[in-house]
Backbone:
């Protein structure tokens, strides 16, 4: 790219960011969570069609990335460099990025199954810890490989990493979590981790839902093996809630 092309590229990106609705969209994605075009339209205070046009322009300039999960389409910042550029502009403009408030029921939000792997707050925390510790390494936008220390970690859990790599599916990949709007671990490795957690009774699975409950043993093992601090899980069940409601409603004899 020559100097003139570089200048044109900078001006195009600057113009895209400078449009007020696009600024709101980009700033709302600064917290690392992905959002739908409907949610971003509400953030930007524009119509759905206008938001779609803005997102198409931002995607064209590689400022946002589209994630397709079944019937759902989410948008996130395209990468760390975009976030860093926005951070610098926000310092100059003295703006703060809005926070993301998930609306998923507490039990499902904490831990649940996503196809054959783990999802929810617990899964996102484990994913982030594996990235931070260097156990999971990105090979491209949609694939991971294990480092030598990562292989040792999973082999220590009794997971045959080499066997997983021969399966006719992706070995390890980011899967966008619909409650957290951030990735958890998918692929054959994510499925193996969930099966190990169930087999060792680190988590138990509801018979009539996708919710997972973290056991005391699981909290201890995951905390020590992954060196991650886990939040307290909300254990209220619909039945327990109904029982409490009836108890409150019933007159005292």
Residues:
């Amino acid at each position: 790219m020559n100097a003139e092309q570089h200048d044109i590229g900078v001006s195009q990106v600057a113009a895209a960011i400078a449009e007020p609705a696009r600024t709101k969209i980009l700033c709302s994605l600064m917290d690392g969570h992905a959002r739908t075009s409907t949610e971003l339209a509400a953030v930007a205070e524009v119509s759905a069609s206008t938001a779609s046009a803005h997102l198409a322009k931002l995607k064209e300039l590689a400022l946002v990335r589209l994630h397709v999960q079944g019937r759902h389409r989410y948008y996130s910042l395209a990468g760390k460099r975009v976030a860093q550029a926005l951070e610098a502009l926000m310092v100059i403009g003295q703006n703060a990025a809005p926070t993301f408030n998930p609306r998923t029921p507490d039990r499902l939000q904490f831990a649940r199954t996503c196809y054959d792997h783990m999802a929810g707050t617990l899964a996102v925390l484990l994913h982030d810890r594996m990235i931070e510790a260097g156990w999971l390494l990105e090979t491209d936008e949609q694939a991971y490989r294990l480092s030598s220390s990562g292989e040792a970690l999973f082999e220590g859990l009794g997971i045959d990493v080499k066997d997983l790599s021969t399966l006719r599916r992706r070995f390890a990949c980011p899967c966008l979590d619909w409650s957290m709007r951030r990735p958890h671990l998918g692929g054959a490795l994510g499925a193996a981790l969930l099966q190990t957690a169930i087999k060792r009774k680190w988590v138990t699975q509801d018979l009539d839902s996708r919710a997972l409950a973290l056991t005391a043993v699981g909290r201890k093992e995951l905390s020590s093996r992954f060196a991650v601090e886990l939040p307290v899980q909300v254990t209220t069940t619909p039945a327990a809630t109904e029982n409490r409601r009836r108890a409150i409603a019933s007159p005292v004899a």
